[in-house]
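Quick question: who can interpret this fold?

. . .
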Amino acid sequence: MTRATSSAAETTETAETTETTAPEVPTAAVGPSTARPLRPAWLPDALVIAGYLGLAVLLTSAQWGHPGRLFHQAGDQVLFEWMLAHAAHAVVAGENPLFSTALNAPDGVNLMANTSVLGLGVPLAPVTLLFGSQVAFCVAVVCCLAGTATAWYVLLRRRLVTARSAAALGGLVCGFAPGMIAQAGAHLHVAAQFLLPAILALVFRSASSPRGVWRPGVGLGLLLVWQVFIGEEVLVFLALAAGVFALGYALADRAAARRLAPSLLGRLAVAAVVAVTLLAYPLWFQFHGPQHYTGMAFAAHGFQLDAASFTASARQTVLGDDWLPGLLAPNPTEENSFFGPGLLVLAVVTVSWLWRRPLVRALAGCGVVFAVLSLGTDLRVDGTATGIAGPYRLVAGLPLLDLAVPARFALVCVPVLGVLVALFADRVRAARRSPVVPGLPVRLLGAGAVAAALLPLTPTPIRAVPVAPVPAFVADGGWRTLVPAGRTVVAVPPVTGAALSPVMLWSARTGLAFRAPGGYFIGPSGPDDPAARWGAPDRPTAVLLRRVAETGAVPVLTGADRRQAVDDLRHWRAAVVVLGRLTHDEPVRRTVEELLGPGRPVDGGWMWDVRALVG
């Protein structure tokens, strides 16, 4: 998750650049008559980036052209489709992007306190407006994966290695490791890590002149602001990992640390001023604005990894299956540590081979720290609780970390391993022949080692599942003549709490064309209770209809139930109630008819006009 473990202060180690060969340059033929045009200098880099893009498109292929399918963690995709649609709507309508009443009517949602990914949604607004929220989500996934790989490729190529192939391999690991694929199908805010290499490049610079403080400091501050609007969680992990890496590097090379500390602290100070100035109001809104909340809506510490997961194969790899990962990770989106034995062995070999380099020692230390933290508060091995307290207990009560998901600490290991792979490949390319064993083909053996480590991690397309379509009555705007300004469209069930929210999908796919109660978000438990909870506070009718939708059992209703239904519809300011396709849609329809009277069939479901009933 955080790229903080990467290139860091490597630019200060001028002696290390001699360990690799000079970059390859094309050779022109001699003489004007035989001269052949050189290939453009940008072409090899463009081919690497095109390869990343092609792989990202392939991995998202299960959804292109299939509006009735979502990636396997369907509720999370609906959430982010809605966030992308909201960002586009806010751009066009000129509304406050930090708050919306399109969901959770009449109270609304504090979007700054949720994963609103405005840093992705605003740039992608043209795509969302032209092609819809599903296409925008798939484009965002492609940009997250390929963009992260490209950013690391550029940083590796410019700062750490001379061989383009080595940088390309490192970028491939950083952008397409199993943990990145698992996150990309559900959590855009975690998978979007393309800014992190640029942030690190500005933090860890060798320049000590004033110019090396002010300009990078301002640029760093702007990048931090952008990252906040993509995902604050990733930024927190980045800061933690950068701190651990910097400490490790300082211990490994105290002279360099003393020399570079003043300019580094100066850049951070400038960046802090820029970021605080620009983020003051958004952060106030997040913590004190309408519909803010306190705490977390779920037990974050329960999401931890099994120690055996580090050598296992993730579901979405060529060697993966559904059974073993289910024992070793909390859910399919948190398979962040499934690196396989080959990559870990290669990392150990690289660290041993290049141990004298401060960069490598700092990387190794950082990777180990965050791998251990990802095991959570109680260690599990191969699906069995050991009863041994995990090191995470030492930091679990600290501010920010008390809300962190331990399993995501393992994502810090992704760039650590990516950089180590790049360093190994670059060193192998430079070594040619072993000085220890004459005649040993180091390049051939190195290529075999890299292939053995990475081929088992080859990702497979992100799995997709079917989703009930948006009723044509909603999608085509048949509701418009029935819903006056200030009134809402109530989906059945009205409030779903966590997981998949039908009305949120309807809202996203129609570009937030109507207001509705419910939705999948985090908000306060009530007007006088700021404790976090998933979705809107339950009302009796919402609980009743949700239970019928889940069980298919029609309850015996009373006059009190019918009066309560009318009261709840008044609270939601309802104009129409719409039932789409559900697993138990017939029992749900009968229940709604007993509450509200006969409905009428519409294209894609049933509809009840409740304007006269609600008044």
